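Priority: medium. Attachment 1 of 2:
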């Protein structure tokens, strides 16, 4: 039988500590430069303790990605408590609210965001989900015809929006150059100022 802590309250603390230290190390050094020995040393536990909870470094990394994706989806799928307004203005209002909530989540989890939204192989899946969510909002609010004012395919516009969001998260939000509400407003103004004039 492997040495290490058993599954109990102390064991759960050990698992949580391993997760926290892994987030820090993966975020700082990257996946390939982080060893299991680095994680257990930072968490001040034994290597067998690590294997009580995780089969491998890869399994731990996948758990962290799943943790980010779960929080991300909870934010993107959250329902607004306000009355949903249909049309372009309703879409713009809801988009700004969802971006604000997403940016707050990112500010609260900057290292996990670096792993799950920027660096991991699964990050493109998160961005694809964001694209699908935004397209869904456009059709939900029945404003796809209004957005054709741009004379560009809506899918291209949303892919561009998601790419801009990713870049601005890296350069402004995580660098603390903009607050979540400011950045959400900046993005909406950048992409939809023309349509706001028409409404």
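Attachment 2 of 2:
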């Amino acid at each position: 039988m492997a040495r290490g802590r058993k599954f109990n309250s102390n064991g759960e603390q050990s698992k949580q500590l391993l997760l926290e230290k892994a987030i820090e190390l993966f975020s700082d050094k990257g996946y390939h430069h982080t060893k299991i020995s680095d994680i257990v040393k930072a968490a001040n536990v034994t290597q067998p303790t690590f294997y009580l909870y995780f089969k491998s470094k890869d399994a731990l990394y996948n758990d962290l990605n799943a943790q980010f994706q779960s929080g991300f989806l909870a934010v993107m799928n959250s329902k607004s408590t306000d009355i949903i307004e249909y049309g372009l203005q309703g879409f713009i209002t809801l988009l700004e609210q969802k971006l604000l909530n997403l940016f707050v989540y990112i500010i609260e989890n900057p290292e996990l965001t670096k792993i799950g939204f920027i660096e991991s192989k699964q990050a493109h899946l998160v961005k694809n989900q964001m694209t699908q969510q935004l397209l869904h909002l456009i059709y939900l609010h029945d404003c796809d015809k209004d957005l054709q004012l741009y004379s560009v395919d809506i899918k291209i516009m949303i892919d561009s929006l998601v790419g801009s969001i990713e870049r601005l998260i890296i350069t402004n939000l995580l660098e603390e150059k903009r607050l979540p509400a400011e950045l959400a407003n900046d993005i909406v103004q950048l992409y939809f100022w023309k349509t706001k004039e028409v409404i």
